[in-house]
């Protein structure tokens, strides 16, 4: 594995190009880069929020900020009841042990979910890095806690799975870093933190681990010029070892979200409900109240598999990717409820994945007659896919959007995916009426939502 030094970072900044750069350090040029095709085809990824916040595992991964930044009552009370008065957030770090962490086991679970990429939080806003960062001395997983390079272990395990790609999350700012606080007090007229801490980490992550997704977050209300985002992205797209495959998001400074970058996230749990003109991603959580693991989470706070499937088909129908988050425990386990949801969505995708992976948005995203029906297409196969979330009680599904010429032929066919061809007829004034087969529970192709493949739909 390549060793990154401060000298190599300086070289990256000062190296002289012998050829003309394809992408210039401005948003017009950066935004002109085509999105690598693999990302749109993948459709589904897994987010992993893991760090020192996994030790208290109370309330939220924003525990430190809510406890000492905002002094929120539940967090202050929790600390008062359970820890001595002089306890500091840094004292949690030795208990971030990861003794049960097995990267191969994680990737087996994620691969079973049907995900095509994972995004690991290498550093959240607390500043603790999951690798031995040169700029995060004594506040990283190699010096404290696990005393292991967790990013390296994840990267190696990902690459052992041919169907998975590596993504790395990195927070630009840190809540309580003195250099960032000083820059903020100067209204970001100075950028000591960006140059000494954040940018070296970004170069280090790319050069050492070579991710296919670089997921930036946490601008701290500082503009992209403070972070030198366009300069870094120009290097990433022109000269980095992942320049041809890497995908980036839109969180590169105040005002860049939903406006600049490889694909848009716009907001956490973003779901526009309609087709967008730019590729986007819905990053969301199985635990609806937190990205990090919570010991105090009640069952009602976890999404059901029905809700997850619905979120996935709506996202893909509207042209987005779904990035679904799990929060591991401080000792490195994927909690059983997360594993169950992951394996459930994987079973669903094994049946219905042909309408998800490599699909495109159709002319209509949802049906205009029957609610709970979403569409995708695969033009090369002359196929349209209709996902329906509720099995009609009378077995007849009315679809208002598709139109098929009369006649049951190979070129004019409706198939219940995982089962076989089904009868249909044109409906008036438009659409088709599908006669679903009478199936026992054991004969159902899947349990939670179903897919029709329409061949020859206009």
Helix residue percentage: 25-40%
Sequence stretches where pLDDT stays below 50 over 5 or more residues:
14-19
Number of domains: 2
| Whole-number mean pLDDT | 94
Q: CATH superfamily assignment of the largest domain?
A: Glycosidases
* Biggest sheet details: 7 strands, parallel
Side by side, the strands of the main sheet go 5-4-3-2-1-7-6
Q: Indicate the proportion of strand residues.
A: 15-25%
Class by SSE composition: alpha/beta
Radius of gyration: 24 Å
Number of helices: 13
Rough outline? globular
Task: Give the CA-CA distance, first to last residue.
Answer: 52 Å
Report the strand count: 15
Secondary-structure element string: HHHEHHHEHEHHEHHEEHEHEEEEEEEE
Provide key terms for this protein.
458 residues; alpha/beta; TIM Barrel; Immunoglobulin-like; 2 domains; 15 strands
Topology (elements, then pairings):
Elements: H1 6-14, H2 27-30, H3 37-42, E1 44-48, H4 63-69, H5 73-82, H6 103-112, E2 117-123, H7 150-159, E3 165-171, H8 178-185, H9 192-209, E4 213-217, H10 224-227, H11 229-238, E5 247-248, E6 280-285, H12 305-317, E7 320-326, H13 336-352, E8 373-378, E9 383-388, E10 396-399, E11 413-416, E12 420-421, E13 423-426, E14 432-435, E15 450-455
Parallel strand pairs: 1-2, 1-7, 2-3, 3-4, 4-5, 6-7
Antiparallel strand pairs: 8-9, 9-15, 10-14, 11-12, 11-15, 13-14
Helix pairs in contact: 4-5, 6-7, 6-13
Subunit structure: Homotetramer.
EC number: 3.2.1.51
Signal peptide: 1-21
């Amino acid at each position: 594995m390549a060793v990154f030094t401060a000298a190599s970072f300086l070289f990256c900044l000062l190296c002289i190009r012998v050829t003309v750069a394809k992408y210039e350090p401005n948003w017009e040029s950066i935004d002109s880069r085509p999105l690598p095709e693999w990302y749109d085809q993948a459709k589904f990824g897994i987010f992993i929020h893991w760090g020192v916040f996994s030790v208290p595992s109370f309330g939220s991964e924003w525990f430190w900020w809510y406890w000492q930044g905002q002094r929120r009552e539940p967090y202050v009370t929790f600390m008062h009841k359970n820890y001595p008065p002089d306890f500091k957030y840094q004292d949690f770090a030795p208990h971030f042990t990861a003794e049960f962490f097995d990267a191969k086991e994680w990737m087996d679970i994620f691969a079973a979910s049907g995900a095509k990429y994972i995004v690991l939080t290498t550093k959240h806003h607390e500043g603790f890095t999951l690798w031995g960062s040169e700029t995060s001395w004594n506040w990283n997983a190699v010096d404290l806690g696990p005393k292991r390079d967790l990013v390296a272990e994840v990267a190696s395990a990902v690459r052992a799975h041919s169907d998975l790609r590596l993504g790395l999350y990195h927070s630009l700012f840190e809540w309580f870093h003195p250099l960032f606080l000083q820059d903020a007090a100067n209204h970001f007229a100075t950028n000591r933190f960006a140059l000494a801490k954040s940018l070296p980490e970004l170069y280090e992550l790319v050069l050492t681990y070579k991710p296919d997704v670089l997921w930036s977050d946490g601008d701290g209300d500082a503009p992209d010029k403070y972070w030198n985002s366009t300069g870094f992205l120009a290097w990433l797209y022109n000269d980095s070892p992942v320049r041809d495959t890497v995908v980036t998001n839109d969180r590169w400074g105040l005002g860049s979200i939903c406006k600049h970058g490889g694909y848009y996230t716009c907001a956490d749990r973003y779901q526009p409900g309609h087709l967008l003109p730019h590729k986007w991603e819905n990053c969301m959580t199985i635990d609806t109240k937190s990205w990090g693991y919570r010991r105090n989470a009640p069952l009602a706070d976890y999404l059901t598999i029905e809700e997850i499937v619905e979120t996935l088909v709506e996202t893909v129908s509207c042209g987005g990717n779904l990035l679904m988050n799990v929060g591991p425990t401080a000792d490195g386990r994927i909690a059983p409820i997360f594993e169950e949801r992951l394996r459930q969505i994987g079973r669903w995708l094994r049946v219905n994945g042909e309408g998800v992976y490599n699909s495109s948005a159709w002319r209509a995203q949802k049906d205009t007659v029957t609610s709970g029906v979403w569409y995708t297409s695969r033009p090369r196969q002359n196929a349209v896919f209709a996902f329906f979330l509720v099995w009609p009680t009378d077995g007849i599904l009315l679809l208002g959007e598709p139109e098929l010429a009369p006649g049951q032929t190979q070129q004019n066919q409706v198939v219940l995916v995982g089962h076989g061809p089904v009868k249909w007829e044109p409906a008036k004034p438009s659409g088709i009426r599908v006669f679903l087969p009478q199936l026992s529970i054991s004969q159902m192709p899947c349990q939670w939502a179903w897919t029709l493949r329409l061949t020859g739909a206009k």
